[in-house]
């Protein structure tokens, strides 16, 4: 949902970027994780892209997600899950720590019921998960990198932005 909101606002509405992605990384055994928002933009628009992404992240409560948006995201997630089940790497990620006593609530049912969990997810579930994302000024960090064959000659020929935050989940 966060990726969709960033993509719709920063790319489609404001035209500030070519692409936006959102990745959430959590640990099975530790109560912490992080997320990364990556934006590919032109040098002239990169700082506006940073601000727009921050505004989207901080504004998810005021710009409520609709049932239609959630349904579309669920369909996308289910199709992606189905496609990724053909990958050994995906299965290894799902199966990691399955028998570990340090991860007591993870068992084969978690994997078997994953499509059902996507199907029954509600807007309230999305906002409950959102509460764990740190979006305040002290928790967001950004870095800008230059890419391309002429990166050394022209300081900002193509720019990729990463916003990230470390969140302790308690």
UniProtKB/TrEMBL annotation:
InterPro entries: Metalloenz_LuxS/M16 (IPR011249), Peptidase_M16 (IPR050626), Peptidase_M16_C (IPR007863)
A molecular-function term among this protein's GO annotations: metal ion binding
Domain Peptidase M16 C-terminal: 6-75
Coiled coil: none
Xref: Pfam families: Peptidase_M16_C
Protein name from the UniProt record: Peptidase M16 C-terminal domain-containing protein
Organism: Coptis chinensis
């Amino acid at each position: 949902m966060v990726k969709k909101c960033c993509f719709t606002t920063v790319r489609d509405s404001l035209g500030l970027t070519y692409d936006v992605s959102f990745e959430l990384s959590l640990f099975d055994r530790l109560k912490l994780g992080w997320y990364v928002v990556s934006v590919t933009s032109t040098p002239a628009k990169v700082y506006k892209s940073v601000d727009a992404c921050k505004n989207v992240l901080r504004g998810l409560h005021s710009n409520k997600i609709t049932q239609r948006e959630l349904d579309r995201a669920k369909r996308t997630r289910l199709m992606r899950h189905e496609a990724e089940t053909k990958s050994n790497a995906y299965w290894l990620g799902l199966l990691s720590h399955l028998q570990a006593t340090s991860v007591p609530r993870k068992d084969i049912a978690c994997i078997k019921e994953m499509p059902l969990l996507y199907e029954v997810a509600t807007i309230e579930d999305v906002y409950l998960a959102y509460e764990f994302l740190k979006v305040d000024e002290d928790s967001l960090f950004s870095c800008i990198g230059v890419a391309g064959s002429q990166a050394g000659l022209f300081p900002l020929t193509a720019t990729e932005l990463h916003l990230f935050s470390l969140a302790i989940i308690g």
